[in-house]
Amino acid sequence: MTYTVTPWEVKGNIDYDKLVHEFGVSKVDEPLLKRMEGHAKKKGLTLHHFLRRNIFFAHRDLKFVLDEYDKGNPFFLYTGRAPSGHTHLGHLVPWLFTKWLQDVYGAELWFQFPDEEKFLFKENLTLEDTQKYTTENMLDVIALGFDQKKTKFLIDTKHATQMYPEALKVAKRITFSTAKAAFGFTNEQNIGAIFYTAMQAVPAFLPSVYHKKALPCLIPHAIDQDPHFRVSRDVIPKLGYPKPASIQCRFLPGLGGISTDGKMSSSQEHTTIYTTDDAATVKKKINKYAFSGGKDTLEEHRKHGGNPEIDVAYQWLTFFEEDDRKLQKLYHDYKSGSLLSGELKAVLIEKLNAFLSEHQKRREKAKSAIDKFIWQP
Ligand code: TRP
């Protein structure tokens, strides 16, 4: 079975073990989990379920930033979102985790909105479109509860005065052949797209520039972004800044299921749930489109049970049901056949709608807070 994972295209049934090998990243292992659990405990928190469940499963140099933290040299966080449409549930996965990291490590967060990225990479998006979605997407980030005093939004076209000189220093050290090898570019690629990775590198060291101090950086992101940082990790130390570390997650599959919909995507509207979907829409989409691991007839299901590994409702609950015991019970009840596919979907619908109704309220409130989050250099 084949799959593709690049920063601009994810498709097929992703073999994450193989990907770790291909990308040359490391798995998050038990000793690292133990350390993060210890750090969380000190703040009265528990190890995030994305870590307990191997959803954030890979990293580069995580040990380095944790060592620095333990030595009293805290790291900052950097993540981002290239606006191209409304925010969906898949986008929230790295952001929810970033919020937990900010709470545990008290870290400053630099959140990039590269409003040129999807303009350059997608045929049908104008700069006006991506700028409109920048504002939309910011509301979802703010709604997750980031600490306003410690969080700075960077918008590429708006902060060009500060970012462009730094991007130039990166760009000068990346050849076209390196970019081709990392991103699979051909000669037909527009030259803006070729330059773009230099802009995505900048927030990994810009805080060091502004704080006038070499600060360690940790980048939480979905694994498709790794090629960017593979390239910039070679360059950034040459500019005199620490090599940025990263921690990487799997994708939330689309409703169509892991074998066809490895990553939720806005181009597949009906298998995607947006943060602005109302309760009735969520219910309808899940009931109608969520790929079921249940058996064809009630009789067979009761007898043989369902398959949680391929069932989208169950898979999504591994992302959104924090309680391990509840999740385990659903797993066993479904597998044994006592819980039906429709019943499992109902559990998911209730969980998501409770989350979304709160999120939507906070999202409304966020409208008046945007200006406080945008970086004022
Ligand atoms: N390229 C990312 C996207 O397509 C946006 C992004 C910019 C990003 N900087 C990042 C993502 C840092 C993760 C980490 O949405």
List keywords for this structure.
377 residues; alpha/beta; Rossmann fold; Tyrosyl-Transfer RNA Synthetase; 2 domains; 7-stranded mixed β-sheet; 18 helices; globular; binds tryptophan
Write a structural description:
The chain contains 18 helices and nine strands. The strands form two sheets. The chain has a seven-stranded mixed sheet, sandwiched between helices. A two-stranded antiparallel ribbon has the order 1-2. α7 (127-143) crosses α17, α10 crosses α12 (226-235) and α15 (312-320) packs across α17. It is 50% helix and 11% strand. The protein is of the alpha/beta class. Bound molecules: tryptophan. Tryptophan binds at residues 7, 78-82, 112, 114, 117, 200, 219, 221, 225. Residues 7, 78-82, 112, 114, 117, 200, 219, 221, 225 line the site of tryptophan (TRP).
Reconstruct the topology from this structure.
Blueprint: E1 3-6, E2 9-12, H1 16-23, E3 26-27, H2 30-42, H3 49-52, E4 56-60, H4 62-70, E5 76-80, H5 89-105, E6 109-113, H6 117-121, H7 127-143, E7 151-155, H8 160-171, H9 176-183, H10 191-201, H11 206-211, E8 217-222, H12 226-235, E9 245-249, H13 279-289, H14 298-304, H15 312-320, H16 324-336, H17 341-366, H18 370-373
Parallel strand pairs: 5-6, 5-8, 6-7, 8-9
Antiparallel strand pairs: 1-2, 3-4, 4-9
